[in-house]
Design goal:
Length: about 450
C-alpha cells in the first residue's frame, strides 16, 4: 500500500499542498453531496422540452464525471463540474420552449459552443482574459460567489422566502426545515471551531439521520440500474442548428460558460489559496475540462457543463488537489447505480407551501459562503475606482442570481470608473473590449 500511496501523493502533489488522501476523499464526498441535486434537477428541467428524463439523468452523471476526471487528472484542481444551473433554464425555457427550437437543434448549439470553447482554450484566449482581471475584481468575484452560495443556502433552507411586496422576506422560524437548517448551521460551525476533521461531512450525515424520522429525508432504497441513455444519445442536430441561424444562442452559451467558469475558478482557487501572484497556475488546463465535457455532454443529451461553485464545500473541508475532483467523478458514476442514496442525502423535501427545500445541504452552503466573503478584506475600500466595481460584482451575483451577470456589472463599471478618473492607462484594451461585449450582449437580449 505504501508505494501506491506514495504514487498518489506524487501525482497529485498532496504533501506539497498540505493535504492527504483521507482529507481529499472527505472533500470530494462533501462536494458531491452539495452538488448532487443536479442529478435530479437537470432531467426535471430538460424533460420540459420533451427529452427523456432517465436519459438526461444518465447523461448528466457521465458528463459531470468526465469533466471532474479531466479537471482532477489533467489540471490537478479540487473543482467539480456538472451541467450548469441557469444555463439549463435558458436552454429549456428560452431556446426550446420560448423560441420553438427543437431540443435536438438546441443540443447542436451546445455542441458548437463546446467546440468554440475548446478552440479558445487551446489558443490560450481564456487564460489570457483570466490573467487580465485585476486583483480587486478577483476578490470581488470570490466574495460574490460566497454571497451567491449563501443566498442559495438561505432559500434552500427556507430561511428566505418570496414576498410579493418586498421580493424576499424571512421564512417561518417555526418551520421544521428551517429549524433543521439553523441546527445544521450551529452544529457545523461548532465542529469547525473545534477543528474537527470532516466537520462539514459529519454535519450533513447527522442532519440526514435527524431528517429521516421527521420525513425531511426520504429513504428510497439503495441500488437501481442506470436509466437508458438511448433516447438522447447522439441526437444533437448540428447542421439544423447552423441552418436555423442559432448564432446568437451559441454566442450566449459560450459567453455564459466563459465567464461563469472564470469566476468559479478564481473564487474557489482564491479560497483554497491556489493563486500565485494573483494568477492561476495551469489555467489553460483548468479551462479545458468544461469545454470537453460540454461538447461530450451535448452528444449524450445534456446542456452546458460548467465548474461548480459547490466545489467551495470541498475546499472548506480541506480539498486542495485534483484528487478531490476525481473522487467527485467516482461518486457521480456510482450515483448511476446508487441514485436512491444520492437522492436521500442531496435531494429535496417539498412542504405544504409547494417549494422544494434542502435542509441537509442548505447549512453547508451558508457556512461556505461565510468563509468566502472574507475576501472582501483584500479590497482597498478607500479607492472608489476599484471599490465600486468590486462591490457591484459581489453584490450583483446574488441579486441577479447569476455569476456571469454579477461579473458583467463589475467588468462594465471597471473601465468606466478608471477612464473618468483619469487612469485610462490602467485599463487594458481587452478589458475595455470585454466591457463593450457585455453591453452588446445585454442590448441584444429580448425585452
Amino acid at each position: 500500500m505504501k508505494p501506491f500511496k506514495h504514487r498518489i501523493d506524487q501525482f497529485f502533489l498532496l504533501t506539497q499542498n498540505g493535504t492527504d488522501i483521507p482529507t481529499e476523499i472527505r472533500a470530494g464526498l462533501a462536494t458531491f453531496l452539495t452538488a448532487s441535486y443536479i442529478i435530479f434537477v437537470q432531467p426535471a428541467v430538460l424533460s420540459e422540452t420533451g427529452m427523456d428524463f432517465g436519459a438526461v439523468m444518465t447523461a448528466t452523471c457521465i458528463s459531470a464525471a468526465l469533466g471532474c476526471m479531466i479537471m482532477g487528472l489533467w489540471a490537478n484542481y479540487p473543482i467539480a463540474l456538472a451541467p450548469g444551473m441557469g444555463i439549463n433554464f435558458y436552454f429549456t425555457y428560452t431556446v426550446v420552449i420560448g423560441q420553438g427550437i427543437p431540443w435536438e437543434q438546441a443540443l447542436g448549439a451546445v455542441f458548437c459552443s463546446g467546440l468554440i470553447l475548446i478552440v479558445l482554450t487551446v489558443l490560450r484566449v481564456r487564460e489570457f482574459i483570466l490573467n487580465l482581471i485585476p486583483d480587486f475584481l478577483k476578490s470581488g468575484i470570490a466574495a460574490g460567489i460566497g454571497l451567491f452560495i449563501a443566498f442559495i443556502g438561505f432559500v434552500q433552507g427556507g430561511l428566505v422566502v418570496e414576498d410579493p411586496a418586498t421580493l424576499v422576506t424571512l421564512g417561518s422560524l417555526k418551520s421544521l426545515p428551517v429549524l433543521v437548517t439553523l441546527l445544521g448551521l450551529v452544529l457545523i460551525s461548532v465542529l469547525l471551531y473545534r477543528k474537527v476533521k470532516g466537520a462539514i461531512l459529519i454535519g450533513m450525515l447527522v442532519l440526514t439521520l435527524l431528517g429521516l424520522p421527521f420525513g425531511l429525508v426520504s429513504y428510497h432504497g439503495l441500488v437501481s440500474l442506470p436509466p437508458d441513455m438511448g433516447p438522447t444519445l447522439m441526437k444533437m442536430d448540428v447542421v439544423g442548428a447552423l441552418e436555423l441561424g442559432l448564432i446568437t444562442v451559441i454566442f450566449v452559451f459560450v459567453f455564459v460558460d466563459l465567464f461563469d467558469t472564470a469566476g468559479t475558478l478564481v473564487g474557489v482557487s482564491q479560497q483554497a489559496g491556489l493563486l500565485e501572484n494573483g494568477k492561476l497556475p495551469r489555467a489553460t488546463r483548468a479551462f479545458l475540462p468544461d469545454a470537453i465535457a460540454t461538447t461530450a455532454g451535448a452528444t449524450m443529451g445534456t446542456s452546458t457543463v460548467v465548474c461548480y461553485i459547490e466545489s467551495s464545500t470541498g475546499v472548506a473541508e480541506g480539498g486542495r488537489t485534483g484528487l478531490t475532483a476525481v473522487v467527485v467523478a467516482i461518486f457521480f458514476l456510482l450515483a448511476l447505480f446508487f441514485s436512491p442514496v444520492a437522492e436521500m442525502i442531496g435531494g429535496g423535501y417539498t412542504p405544504e407551501i409547494g417549494r422544494t427545500l434542502y435542509p441537509v445541504t442548505a447549512p453547508v452552503l451558508i457556512i461556505v459562503g461565510c468563509l468566502m466573503v472574507s475576501n472582501l478584506t483584500r479590497i482597498d475600500w478607500s479607492k472608489w475606482d476599484e471599490a465600486l466595481p468590486a462591490f457591484l460584482t459581489f453584490a450583483g451575483m446574488p441579486l441577479t442570481y447569476s455569476i456571469a451577470d454579477g461579473m458583467a456589472l463589475g467588468f462594465i463599471t471597471y473601465p468606466l470608473t478608471k477612464i473618468f478618473s483619469g487612469k485610462t492607462s490602467e485599463v487594458h484594451p481587452v478589458m475595455a473590449m470585454i466591457a463593450v461585449l457585455f453591453l452588446v450582449r445585454y442590448i441584444m437580449l429580448p425585452g
